Request: fold
Amino acid sequence: MIRRLLLLVAVLAMVAAACGGDGAEETTTTTADGGGQTATEGVYAEVVARDVLNCGVNNEVFGFGSIDADGNFAGFDIDYCKAVAAAVLGDSSKVEYKALTAQQRFTALQSGEIDVLIRNTTWTASRDGAEGGTFLTTTFYDGQGMMVKSDSGINSLEDMANTTVCVQSGTTTELNLADRFAAGGLTFTPLTFDSNDELRPAFVADQCDGWTSDKSQLAAFRAQNPESDGGPEAWTILPETFSKEPLGPMVLDGDSQWAQAVNWTVFATIQAEEFGLDSGNVESYSGDDPNVLKFLGQPSGDPPTVTDPGLGLPTDFAVKVISQVGNYEEIYNRNVGPDTPLGLVRGVNDLWTRGGLLYAPPYR
Amino acid sequence: MAVTTDTTAGTGRPPFWRDVKVLRIAAQVLAGVGTVALILYLGRNLTTNLTAANIPTDFEFLKQPAGVNVTGSDFRPSQPISDIILLGIKNTAALSVVGIPLLTILGTLIGIARLSNNWLVRKAATVYVETLRNIPPLLVIIFTNAAVILSLPRMQDAVTPGNLFVISNRFLAIPWATAGDNSGTYLAVLGVGILASIVVWIWRTRNFDATGTPHHRFAWGTATFVLFAIVGFFSLGKPFSLSRPEVIDGRIIEGGYQTVGPYIAVLLALVIYTASHVAEIVRGSIQAVAKGQTEAANALALSSFQRLRFVVLPQAFRIAIPPLINQFLNFTKNTSLSIAIGYAEITLVVFQAIGNAKPAPQLILILMGAYLLFSLTVSFVINLLNRRLQLVTN
Reply:
C-alpha cells in the first residue's frame, strides 16, 4: 500500500515538476565553459541552495545500506552519500536518506525526488538508455550468485533443475536468472518479491530452493542469519558467479556538472588510497609531492598556486571527503571487509596497482 | 434609475449574461474546456520532460521481450511485455472470479450468524467481524501467508492425502481431468445436457403452475443432466480421465491441477477480510427488511430456514446489492496487495517491468486502465443482477 502511494507521489511529483516553469529547460544545464565558476542552475546549485543532499539508498542490505541499532543509516553506499555531501557541502552529515525499493528507485531519480541514487544499482545498457539516467564510476564490482540451504544437496547450478528460486523483482538478477537457466537448459519457477524483507521468510520456510542476488547481498543476508535459523553455516553460496554486476552511483541525464561532482568524489576516495592518504593523515599532510598537493587543493609549484581543475567543486573537496568519510579502503573495510560479518575480501575491488579494477584518472 | 431602461422587460427573458439557462451551459462548457486544457498541458509537459531525459514516450516497449519467468505459469522470457501484462490480468481475474463467490457465501453466513439467537454463534461472528474489519488487508495477507501457507510442509515433505491432493508451502494441487479422444464432442454433449435439463426444469414448473403437483424441478433437472453426462461418457469411450498430481523429486508437481502457495494465501486472506465487510452489509440489509415480513412468515408457521430462504433473504439481497458491488470492487482492487508475497498479478508484473527499465508513466497508465476495466466489468455484471432483482413497480 505504502509502496503504491510512494509511486503515486513520485508520478505526481513528476507532473508537478513539469508544471513548475518550463520543465524542459530545468533538465538541461549549460555544459560548455562550465569551468570554475559557481553553478547557477542544475542539481549542483539546487543541492547547495538546499544545503542538504537527497540520496536514494537501500535500507535492507546489511553492509551496503541498512539501518543500524541506533536507527541511523549505515553501509558502503551510505558512506558514498556522505562523501558526496562532504565534497559538495563540506559536511558529510548533510544528507537526507530516502529508502527506496528496487522498483521505486528510477522513478524517484527521474522525478527529482533524489539528487543521486546510490543503492547497489547495476550499470546496464538499457538502464543507461531508457531510464534517463547516467551511471558514474563503479564503486563495487559485484557478480550474481545463488544461495541454497547447506543441507539441500545442491552443489552447483546444474543440480537445480525444476527448482523454485526466490528473486527480487525489477532487478538485473531477475533477468540474469532467466538467461542463465535458459542457457543451461534448466527449467525453474521464480518466486518474485518486492523487497528482500518479504523474500527472506519465504527462503527460510523452504518455499524456494535457492535465493539469487548479487553475491555481496547474499553474503550480507547470510552473515545476518540468526542462530535460530541455523546461523550463517546453514546457508551456502554456490561457487558460480553468473553475471557482471558493476554497482555505482546514478544521476539524471543531461547535467554534466553534477555528474562530474559525484564522479570525482568517488575518484577522490580511490586516489586517496593510492596516495596512501586516509582520514587520519590527510589533514596533516606535510610532504611536497606536487600531485598530492594538487589533489588536496594546497598551493604547489613555483610560484605556489592552488590548482582548480574547474569541476565546480571546492578545491579542498578531497580533504573534506577523506577526513570525514575516509578513503576507499577505509570505507570498504568498515562496511564489508574481512573484519566485518560479511567478510568480503577485496578481490577485483582493489587498486589497479594491486591487480584490481579501481583506477582513478589523474587529478591535474 | 430612470435612465436605464430594461430592454428585455416584457419579453420574459433576461439578457444572456443573466440568463440562468445560458449561464449553466456556459459554466459547464468552461469547466469542460478547462479540464481538457489542463490535461493536455500536463500531458505535453510530461512528454517534453521525458523526451528531454531520453525516456521513450510511446508504447513501442510493449513489443520488447519481457526477459523474466513468471511464478506458476509457463511464460517464456522471450515473450513480449504485452503478453506478461495479459498474464497479469488473467491472474488478477483468477483471484476475482474465485474469490467473489466465496466471500459472498462466507459473508452471508457470518452476517446471518450476527443475528442468531444463539449467544455463542452471535458473539463469535461479532468478534470475527470487528477484528478483521479493523485490520489493514495488507496485514491480513502477510499474516495469512506466514501463519498458514509458509507453515505448510516443505515441498520435499509434501503431504499427499489419498494420492489425490498435494499440499506444500510451494505448490498445491488437486486431481483434475485430462482430455483424451472425443473430449470436444463430450463437452458438446454436456452442453446439450444443460439445455435439456433447462427444458425439463421449465416443463416441471409449467406443470406445477397448471396442476399443482409438486414440481421437484431441481431433482428432475439434475437427473437429466447426469443422464446425459453418464451416457455420453461411456458411449464416447471415456473422453476424460482422472489425472492425479504427483510430486517429482520434491521439486515440481506433474498432473492434476496445481497452483502456487501465494495464490492461496492472497485468496484466503482477502476472502476472510472482505467477508467481514460483506457480513455487516448482510446484517444491515436483513435488519432493514420490515419486521412485519418476519412476523408474517412466523404466522404462516414457516421454519426459520424457510423464513430466511423465501421471505427475508430475497428482500435483504435487494437492499444489499448496491453496497455489495463496492465490496466486490474493493476485493478486486485489494488483489494488488499480492505484490507483497509474490503472486504475479497485474500490479506485480507492471512494477516488475518498470524495475526492468521500461517506462513508468505508460505502464502506470496501462495499470490504471486494467483496474478500470475490472471495476467496470464487475459493476456491469452485478448491475444486470440488480436489475433482475429490483421490485417491478408498474
Observations:
- Chain B touches chain A through 61 residues (CB under 8 Å).
- The beta strands of chain B are 166-167, 171-174, 176-179, 240-243, 246-248, 252-254, 257-260.
